[in-house]
Amino acid sequence: xxxxxxxxxxxxxxxxxxxxxxxxxxxxxxxxxxLGFKDFARSPWLSTLHxxxxxxxxxxxxxxxxxxxxxxxxxxxxxxxxxPVLATSLYAMSRAMERGEVVDFQLLVNTWTQWHxxxxxxxxxxxxxxxxxxxxxxxxxxxxxxxxxxxTLLAPAPIHTPMDFVHHVVLSPNHFLFEFWxxxxxxxxxxxxxxxxxxxxxxxxxxxxVLQAVLTSWKTVLTHPLQMAFWALLIMGFCLLGIxxxxxxxxxxxxxxxxxxxxxxxxxxxxxxxxxxxxxQGGH
Length: 284
Prior knowledge:
By secondary structure, the chain is mostly helical. It has helices at 7-12, 28-42, 44-64, 69-86, 88-99, 105-113, 128-154, 162-170, 177-196, 199-205, 210-223, 225-244, 250-268.
């Protein structure tokens, strides 16, 4: 009888083991949102704290960079790209609820602070979350630089403030620059989404490397392209709603999407053959 390879055997193999992707229906992302809202309701204060901090950050950035378009655009773009990292403690909360464990402020502290530095060089250590976060940050920087170069070269007038962007790019009647800019942004966002949609919850929950997590995330998107595209649209729609509500909507949107992303991961990936990363053990 065939036995699945143990984690130690998989690590010695020249190939990267990817866990199986589970079947889902097209509208399953709506169920993830519902489950995310239930988790929010079970721990409203700690969940709201995440959204409140992100909302406050948005207010501060807007106040500081209200007349500096590229700084403002860079910060907002960076937020959308690294949001999966910022939601790490929300994943930890949902995991604890799922296991019947205590969900308190100490859980959040442990999630962000319990690092075993002596294990930082191991590919499946808790430091893999930091490595992946840095990769996402680099992706955000790349998009801002590309976007700035595109607008600077093709805009009919210099862009210095958000209103300059609206007048000369968004509302320009004789140019298709805004449409091209949106298309390029979507083209660059797609691989970032495919790389991160499953990666962060998987890195938190199981002892896997960044490469395993990213390839598993891509495998999921390629297995369910329509469902994951629907999920991406829902995420983008709620994030934009939160941003354009003067960041107040993010107080609810951030925790709901964070909790929902955990349930997406749990319903998409069969991780039974992967070694578990114990709660609160940063060095595993």
